Amino acid sequence: MSHFKNATSEFKKRLADQPVIRRAVVTPLLAQDDGPIYTGSNANPNNNGLQVFKSSKKRKAEVYSQPQETGAGNHINSLLLNAINFLKTSDEPQSVEDLKRKGNIDLETKPRLYELLKSNEKVAYDEVNNTFVYKPTYQIKSKEDLLAMLEKRKNEGGMDYKELKDSYSKLPQAVQELASEGRILVVKNKDGQPRVLFWNDQRYNTAMDPEFREIWHRLRIPDEIDLPKELEKAGLTHMQVFDKKGPGEVPKRKQVRRNRKMKITNTHMKGLDLTKDFVIQK
User: Among the three residues 204, 231, 249, which one is the final residue of a domain in this structure?
Assistant: First the structure.
């Protein structure tokens, strides 16, 4: 029993002589150095029992950069597209110097780009003046040209706004002015952008009675779900869509099954009458 007490007291004495190391919370530093290094030996009471050693190794700061905005890539197709887009915004012919000064497109140092631009189907090249101009789908240079084209195509319906966008660089301004003057009619998308343009024939701009206008605007179109019911109440039927066969479609013919003649291969039995020659006699 005395031996056990001695062992216990000796163990407690050794445990009390052990140094106490406190846990430290290290916060990563964003500075260029690696931060302090902590150790449990030679503890400093001002640092929670830990000694701090400064590291002489410097940490390089990480730098993240974005690609520089250069306008166009270095590939020949990217340069060609950039040159054509620049010509779209210019209604007048552009020389080699104009392309370099205004569009940052150097054709003198890029002969391959020069030849591709000359032979492009959307670019008209003037060999006499050495100028380039964009070749639009429709020749429109002013809002009067736009009005004349819409009047010329009045019997063909309206013109798609997207098809006219590359024909005139000031098309949005021209459409807005002509619409405000009542010379054209514009059908817009849900976002308010022009969709279809029509020439407005002034002969059909009949003055309407204010009372009739009030009655007209007072009427409300039913919702799409309730529209068939409202039409039925008024004795009307809604439009039905029928599938139409295209001009190149040929109706399929039903295949008729035909009985094929079987070729007899048992030629050695030819001339035998099974009903007579092989009848069991009673």
Answer: 204
What pLDDT digit, counting tens, does each position of 26-72 carry? Answer: 665 554 455 555 554 444 555 555 455 555 555 555 554 444 444 55
| Contacts with 103 (C-beta within 8 Å, 6 or more apart), sequence order | 82, 83, 86, 94
Structurally, the chain folds into a number of domains equal to 3
Long-range Cβ pairs for the range 83-90 (8 Å, 24+): 83/113, 83/117, 83/132, 84/117, 84/120, 84/122, 84/123, 84/134, 87/123, 87/132, 87/133, 87/134, 88/134, 88/166, 88/169, 89/169, 90/133, 90/134, 90/169
In a domain, 162, yes or no: yes
Range of the domain at 191: 143-204
Q: Provide the pLDDT confidence category of residue 236 given band limits of 50, 70 and 90.
A: confident
In a domain, 236, yes or no: no
Whether 277 is in a domain gets the answer no
pLDDT band of residue 200 (cuts 50, 70, 90) is very high
Q: Are residues 148 and 120 in the same domain?
A: no
Q: What does the DSSP assignment read for 88-105?
A: HT-SS-EEHHHHHHHS--
pLDDT at 69: 46
